[in-house]
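Subject: Interface between my chains keeps coming out wrong

I've been trying for a while to get a sensible model of this assembly. When I model each chain on its own everything looks fine, but I need the whole thing in one frame so I can look at the contacts. Pasting all components below, labels as-is. Any help appreciated, I'm running out of ideas.
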Amino acid sequence: MLTKRIIPCLDVDAGRVVKGTSFVNLRDAGDPAELAAFYDREGGDELVFLDITASADSRDTMIDVVQRVSEQVFIPLTVGGGIRTIEDVRRMLNAGADKVSVNTAAINNPAIIGNGAAQFGSQCIVVAIDAKRVVPEAAGPAAESSRIDEIDESLALDPGSRWEVYTRGGRTPTGIDAVKWAALAVERGAGEILLTSMDADGQLAGYDLELTAAISGAVPVPVIASGGAGQLEHLYDALATGQADAVLAASIFHYGAYRIAEAKEYLNQRGVPVRPPPDDWAG
Amino acid sequence: MNRTASDLKIVVIDYQSGNLRSVAKALEVVGAAPVVTEDATELDSADAVILPGVGSGPAAMQALEKRGLIDPLKGYVASGRPFLGVCLGLQLLLERTEEGDAPCLGIVPGPVRRLPAGLKVPHMGWNSVEFQGSHPVFQGIPPGSHFYFVHSYYADPAERGGVVGATSYGIPFCSVYARDNLAATQFHPEKSGTVGLQIYRNFLDFARSQNSAATTAAPE
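Reply #2:
Try treating it as a single job with all components included. I did that and got this:
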């Protein structure tokens, strides 16, 4: 049976992991390769590296990071942050990434999705969506929908819209409906959606289950839920109620609240199929 | 003479298929020094060949054809030397694919079919493999082990004896094909952690044993 995935997310700044695990004795807790190997041993099903600087210089650094990690860790690697062009996609894949995640670039230049999928296969094009709940009274023409002219009118927020897409690391509202955007991104060739709730992110109070379920129901490709995990129950909720195919998590593992093996055991007991951790792979 | 894995000539076919680097790295980690090449003449002296692949089947066939690799690959497999196909490298062994209704290499009888409707496609993530036969390349892999899959089509070999492993996604499908010198997986062993690396290690052992058997039979 296809299992649900648990995906640790590592934030990288200038080649160093800045939000990594703090509960094990690693020789160098900021070394991406060492942390990747650690999460592989722990039973992480994939890894996401997020370039939080996302500048031209940092992209070269990320390429080096991806090369070093992919020489030592043999589980799928996704790289996100600052991917703007097809050439960026190509370089990351050649460096050893299995997938790239595009966010702002996909909104500003949607052709990157279709071109990327055509050249490299849709399985390696992840569209990341940062979504925020629409506050009813703030909706409508008052929203600064600066991008909407350049994209498709059919994506615009309407009175029934519940979540708006933000770009540039959550700084810029787009006037785009998140559910409509997810469907279009997949139509253009996205092989997976990485969905972050900006309302839930960092709150440790659980994923936005309504958002997760709305997007999961709207697209025929896997959805990775992100933002809000603070307890194991939250992972379960996102996978069961939210119908996500995978959960991305940072704080819950990095700060030592739980080990991945504990999360998997918990999910397994609640009837969610998961891959057993490597030291128990026959189980 | 016994040769070590790094003495063997392990060829990874380069047709810009995308996952070359991780396949080569996995081979290096288990002790090989693979030759990554698109040069068909390299197959003549190869002790083992790996055909990787992600993406579109018809595009892959065109890429192989453009490099003049189709007949050399068929000839290589017919020579009885060890061959490992990965993902698309399994599908391409069959006769035809429903993906664009295109011809494949025709080494293994049967079609490549689209995964059934109603499920999320691609089938992406870790799924288990039930082994229903044995082959040296899959020796010691615990039944029910999980491997990483990414695909929208699957191989449907006519001759079921070669279906050594099966996986379920809506329907049961052939996730491991192995027969004589041929071994192929629908999943990506190079992305399946420890248990995946074991398959590359086994493949090298298999290549080494075939090689020493061949040199014993016909001394150089």
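Reply #3:
Confirming on my end. Chain B touches chain A through 37 residues (CB under 8 Å).
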